[in-house]
Amino acid sequence: MSVAKSVMVTGGAGYIGAHCCKALFEAGFNPVCYDNFSTGHREFVKWGPLVEGNVRDRDRVTSALREHNPIAVIHFAAFSLVGESMSDPQKYYQNNVVGTLMLLQAMREARCSNLVFSSTGAVYGNADDKPIRETDAGVPINPYGHSKWMVEQILRDYRAAYGLKSFSLRYFNACGADASGLIGEMREPETHLIPRAMMALQGHAADFAIFGSDYPTADGTAVRDYIHVTDLAAAHILALKRLLSGDVGGSFNLGTGNGYSVREILSAINAGVGRPVPVLKKDRRPGDPAILVADPTAAFETLMFRPKCSDLATIVRTAWGWHQKAHPMKAPEARAQERLSSLADS
Ligand SMILES: NC(=O)c1ccc[n+]([C@@H]2O[C@H](COP(=O)([O-])OP(=O)(O)OC[C@H]3O[C@@H](n4cnc5c(N)ncnc54)[C@H](O)[C@@H]3O)[C@@H](O)[C@H]2O)c1
User: Fold this and answer.
1) Is residue 184 one of the residues assigned to a domain?
2) What residue numbers bound the domain in which 119 lies?
3) Is-contact 233 22, C-beta < 8 A?
4) Which of 257, 255, 259, 256 is nearest to 224 (CA)?
């Protein structure tokens, strides 16, 4: 009987990490979740062993790598709130950059030389209105984007100097949930559009707002490229297999190439759920560019990546299925009262 090969997944108890652990398990790997539960959830660790620890704790990572002997690490562990990164950049550079340096040192000590890294479309900053290619300049406009861009440069140097092979996958807007309804998006505070809109529908976010209606876009709201988390997880398996077959790595956009405005997303939610989302209008948030849409051609051609679940109807259906389990509906009276108080405050 063959024993499943282990892959260490830092941040495996988080939203995207947990979906990736499930995909790894289904692809015949043993996902070893390494997480400190700073934003992750114990109940999301279902598909392999757990090591509880901080990626900044190099000794702990090294001993976990020696114990489980993974063929690769998939590195999701990071903080990822753009607004918070603007008000507290140290928190982001410490966790995202120093944390990754500690992980890389541990990998070298344990002689693990394959890494898939969670990067982001935020490395491109204020792109113009055409789909962004990997060859476009990295000019992040917030500390979160900078932290990911710095790690990409570090990985490029480690690849050249130490033979540590790595793919940096630049996700655009992750969304949706596993079709089982077992895992999905759940963070505190929740800042992402689709979960916030669904929480508003359920009576859990009376202050749900569109941030900025004066962007230079067709309907004035910000445009993003939404990619289903199940598709993201599948792309990680493709990148992992490519590293294992000898590719030294590089950077890929993970998106669909289609941009949707905030208003288009809200219309899709209205259509999928059958009720309009109650909305307030607020000013733009600092650090939010008008348009971010990927040119995913490189991932399509090299990784043979094909998004299968990233149409808006599937995104809405799976996210709503998860939200109904994760956040049971509030009583209509409480919901009405919260909405009244928030209107009075705004
Ligand atoms: N969600 C998106 O739309 C999106 C887009 C682009 C990139 N990303 C990147 O994808 C990755 C995962 O994002 P997510 O949305 O699943 O976030 P998440 O907050 O749900 O998951 C992050 C996980 O990492 C863990 N973690 C954080 N710091 C840690 C540390 N020092 N040691 C150990 N564990 C630690 C958290 O507990 C959590 O389980 C992040 O690197 C993020 O920057 C996310």
Assistant:
1) no
2) 6-176+228-254
3) yes
4) 259
Are 40 and 71 in a shared domain?
Answer: yes
Instruction: Report CA-CA distances (Å) from 234 to 26, 231, 240, 294.
Output: 10, 5, 10, 17
Catalytic residue among 15, 92, 144, 158: 144
Does a structural domain hold residue 186?
no
- Ligand 1 centroid vs 35 CA: distance in angstroms? 10
Mind listing the pLDDT tens digit for each residue in 200-234? 999 888 889 999 999 999 999 999 999 999 999 99
pLDDT of residue 271: 95
Count of residues making up the chain:
346
Question: Binning pLDDT at 50, 70 and 90, where does residue 330 land?
Answer: low
Active site residue 144: yes
- Cα(342) to centroid of ligand 1, in Å? 30
Amino acid occupying residue 4: A
| Domain shared by 131 and 217, yes or no | no
Structure token pair of residue 308: 């299968």
pLDDT digits 0-9 by tens, 301-321:
999 999 999 999 999 999 999
- Per DSSP, helices labelled H in 176-311 are 193-201, 229-244, 262-273, 297-298
